[in-house]
Amino acid sequence: MSPEYAMVSVFTLNSMEKRMGKKKNMNLTNCTRVTAFILVGLPRVRGMEGVMHAGIFVLYLLCLMGNGLIILSNLSLIDIGHTTVFVPKLLVNYVSAKDSICFACCLSQSFFYFLFGITEFFIITLISLDRYIAICHPLRYATIMTPGVCLKLAIASWFGGFFCLLYSTMKLPNLPFCPSNIINHFFCDAGPLLKVAGGYIQVIEALVFLITVFVIMSSLLFTLISYLFIISTILRIPSSSRQQRAFSTCASHLIVVTILYSSVFFVYLRPTVKSSSFSKMKSVSLVSAIVVPVLNPFIYTIRNHEVKEAVWKALRKETPGFPKI
Q: Contact, 219 vs 87, CB < 8 A?
């Protein structure tokens, strides 16, 4: 790795300690103030780096196009933001043969990545609520899930994501990153970032873990309870064709929930970061960070009659002689 990308601005703490009248601390004397971080990047397979980055570029384009078709969806905006936070920087670093990211850029990337991520969990939980009302209380659906209620729930999801990150966002910039400025990841994930942080990080670490557990477990529990009621209601439907339609309505959501939660459980439900090895987790992170946002629009719309009809109408309009179905 080229030294020019690993340069950090060093500020000795001797003068500060003298002004404050405190005894020198050997750990702080050797501390450095970083102005940039080095991203280790993706898992390396000799001769396959170009193929991997080309694949990520294609997946990113699919994410933009797929979610762009249903841009009015809150989940689509989240997926676009979630991938755009880190994929362009990842690709630019590869093309320019650089691995660095500025200090402020790194913290901003981490904040927005988790803002979109936490908000996505809340939105997916609200989708399970929507499915529950649609199947268990179909006659009351229009009066309960009004546009105004949906808007308020979406706003609450965004504010919930913001407030979950408020404390750590204020504390991270003040941490001394003494041991190293090399982040063993392809973006500024919270775990690898805290692992290279010095000082007393136990409070932030514990809070991040508790918030992660709360967001993941509470949303998963709510989703599971919703689907217990949904399945119970579907099984009481006398018509097998109506049962199939009801299960079909929930299938897309269940697929996304299964993929997302299984990958996030592996990556983020860890009580400490100092003893964690992130090399093995980077491949799994790609699933929740790139693959899920790409799959979401296709999974959610493949059974949506209105979306498919709109696509066919657009194709018939733009392509003369296109067969009608």
A: no
